[in-house]
């Protein structure tokens, strides 16, 4: 597993995990997300194009990122979620908090 890719696009910061967002790989992604939010990013896009699975640790990380951004007036958007991940996020009603789109 490699580090997440972080791309600055105008006012948006796009973060693309290198693979699944599961307990074993959450620390690397958490570091990148924290650095992004603490660095002043207010429009964060989580690009899940390389992700097929998100476990409970990954869900916690996404929710925590959303909460951190809300505190500073920012927003989180999730894009390119697989069908299974999109269904999981909808079941958890996360789509009521932030925009989530599939492949």
Oligomer class: single chain
Average pLDDT: 94
Largest sheet: 5 strands, mixed
Distance between the termini: 22 Å
Query: What is the number of helices?
Result: 3
The general outline is globular
* Count of beta strands: 5
Could you give the order of the helices and strands? EEHEHEHE
Strand order of the largest sheet: 1-2-3-4-5
Structural class computed from helices and strand pairing: alpha/beta
Please state the CA-atom Rg, rounded to the nearest Å.
12 Å
- Low-pLDDT ranges: none
**Can you give the helix content as a percent range?**
25-40%
- Please report which band the strand proportion falls in: under 5%, 5-15%, 15-25%, 25-35%, 35-45% or over 45%: 25-35%
What is the structure about, briefly put?
With 103 residues, the protein is of the alpha/beta class. It is built from three helices and five strands; from the N terminus they run E-E-H-E-H-E-H-E.
Describe this structure in words.
- The structure is a single chain.
- With 103 residues, the chain is an alpha/beta fold.
- The chain has a 5-stranded mixed β-sheet with strand order 1-2-3-4-5.
- A hairpin with a 2-residue loop joins strand 1 and strand 2.
- Helix 1 packs parallel to helix 2.
- The mean pLDDT is 94.
Task: Give the key terms.
25% strand, alpha/beta, globular, 3 helices, five-stranded mixed beta sheet, 103 residues
Give the topology.
Blueprint: E1 5-9, E2 12-16, H1 26-38, E3 43-47, H2 56-71, E4 75-81, H3 83-91, E5 99-102
